[in-house]
Amino acid sequence: MSELIDNRAFRIRTLKHIIKELHAGTAPEQVKGRLAELIRETDASEIAAMEQELMAEGMQVEEIKSMCDLHSQVLRDFIAERQERGAAPGHPVDTFRRENEAIRVVTSRMKAIIEEIDALPDDAQPDGVLDRLRGDFNELMDVDKHYLRKENVLFPYLEKHGITGPSKVMWAKDDEVREMLKALGEALQAGSASAAEWKMVAETLAVPALRAVEEMIFKEERILLPISLDALTEDEWGEVWRNSPQFGWCLVEPLEGYAPPDSVVPERTVELPRERAVQFPTGALTFEQLMGIFSVLPADLTFVDADDRVRYFSEGRERIFSRSRAVIGRKVQHCHPPRSIGAVQQIISDFRSGKQSVADFWINFRGRFVMIRYLAVRGQKGEYLGTLEVTQDLTRLRTLEGERRLLEYDAAEAQL
């Protein structure tokens, strides 16, 4: 056993020495040969331990972060070959992996669109192509929920086991990715420009941002998630599962199949026994009654909080616009097509400032006349709490004439 411990310590020391050489300017090709034999024996936990030791010796997180991509470039050929440890469908690790795969699909589409732009004549106007790129970018921004869940739910449990390196370095890299995506988003929302200008945007903003997103996927898949599977107990994974929904899901929803330990139950903000009620100024309702009321309202509700994140939507019998639970926690600006983002931002800005409190729209949608109302939600002192979207099919109501004073059931309603 002592020999195994000594071998592990030796591998960590050697890894640390090689990384220091990289930081000093040694070319990656010069260290890969020495790594080849070493990496056959090492695992992800030793790479994390190496980063922690570097920080303990005084190397700043920012310095490690600045070289992080170079580290993975050097290590990629070796650790990418390792067998992936399985996780049950719906397990937090399975969900992280499925999200990563969905993110890869989006980044691949975006890279293909960038290649289309590169192939255009410099004086072309690539508006149609850019609309597709903007749409995919909105989907990609779902990655923020993936990062938030990782940072706020998974990292604390790793730190309980003394594993602090990945959380400090990866969180810094997450923020770097966020800044790159923010800059790309601002460029994509700019006015029309020639293909030559968009090629420059692609080269300086889009390609580096997509590369950074994919690098983080690699680091999670080959370092973070294997370490986490080894370190966390089943009860802790149950707690990760329990605390994850408040941050929402990225592009996909968890599968059915994972059964957390009996000691772990889903958490609501307030857990109400069925016989207890929520007391309002005008009466009281049980949780079950509230759920029932929301399910039969003749309108669809969606609530966006003061931080612009989707926090709730009603699940009626037949929604006008479909909603996936993966939307929970997502920035509302990224839930709309590119052409609508300006209006969405204007509404929220006007509501937040108190300049306006209602915004009404009505459209013809698949043969139906649909009313969409945005209502500012405010606290007792007038503070902005969020925005409520109310969507209602008014097709039948617009056809009503005269009066109905006697009881008469509509056939369609009687079948519900």
Task: Write a structural description.
This protein is an alpha+beta fold and 416 residues long. It has 13 helices and 7 strands. It has helices at residues 2-23, 28-39, 44-56, 61-79, 92-118, 127-140, 143-160, 165-188, 195-231, 234-243, 287-296, 338-353, 411-414; strands spanning 277-280, 283-286, 300-305, 310-313, 358-365, 368-378, 384-393. A hairpin with a 5-residue loop joins strand 6 and strand 7. Mean pLDDT is 82; it is low at 1-5.
In short:
With 416 residues, the chain is α+β, with helices and mostly antiparallel strands. The protein has helices at residues 2-23, 28-39, 44-56, 61-79, 92-118, 127-140, 143-160, 165-188, 195-231, 234-243, 287-296, 338-353, 411-414; strands spanning 277-280, 283-286, 300-305, 310-313, 358-365, 368-378, 384-393.
Q: What characteristics describe this protein?
A:
single chain, 416 residues, alpha+beta, Four Helix Bundle (Hemerythrin (Met), subunit A), 3 domains, two-stranded antiparallel sheet
Q: Uncertain runs with pLDDT below 50, 5 residues or more?
A: 1-5
The spatial strand order of the largest sheet comes to 4-3-7-6-5
Shape: globular
Instruction: Provide the domain count.
Output: 3
Mean pLDDT: 82
H-E string: HHHHHHHHHHEEHEEHEEEH
Fourth-level CATH superfamily of the largest domain: nmb1532 protein domain like
Measured distance between first and last alpha carbons: 68 Å
Helix content: 40-55%
CATH architecture classification name of the largest domain? Up-down Bundle
* Largest beta-sheet characterization: 5 strands, antiparallel
Per DSSP, the total helix count is: 13
As a percent range, the share of strand residues is 5-15%
What is the CATH domain class of the largest domain?
Mainly Alpha
Radius of gyration: 26 Å
Question: How many DSSP-defined strands?
Answer: 7
| Structural class by secondary-structure content | alpha+beta
CATH topology of the largest domain: Four Helix Bundle (Hemerythrin (Met), subunit A)
